[in-house]
Amino acid sequence: MREDGGQVAVEFVGMLPLILLTLVLLWQCVLIGYTYTLAGNAADEAARAGAVGDDCGAAGRRHLDGAWASGAAVSCPESGGMVRATVRLRVPVLFPGAVSHPFDVTGEAAAVWEGDDR
Question: What region holds the TadE-like domain (predicted)?
Fold first, then answer.
């Protein structure tokens, strides 16, 4: 009769690359989702600041973490009594601050102008 000693270790070593790849893909999905959350929140804050006449670009960047703030593009045009904020962020690959994906994540928000009449 043949012994099965070490079979579990061999199977684990064979599955380890698949397990690691799954964890890396899940982590990348978390980073993409977090980037969407950051972009939306920064756009909300920028629109609120722009609605009362404050610097919306600074308000949008203030609510971003370091790695995301460095490549952020915040714009806040006003039209028709509304301030519309758009925040574009780069999605990091595995580690924030290293390499970014070639696509941007966009967050948009709007608020009614509440400042003095212009």
Answer: 6-48
Q: Please check whether residue 93 is in contact with residue 71, taking contact to mean a CB–CB distance below 8 angstroms.
A: no
Cα–Cα–Cα angle for 117, 72, 69, rounded to 5 degrees: 105
| Whole-number Å distance between alpha carbons of 78 and 19 | 49
Q: Quote the pLDDT of residue 10.
A: 79
Q: Could you tell me the pTM of the whole model?
A: 0.78
Q: How many CB atoms lie within 10 A of CB 41?
A: 16
Residue among 49, 29, 50, 41 nearest 87 (CA):
41
Q: Which residue has the tokens 């904020």?
A: 85
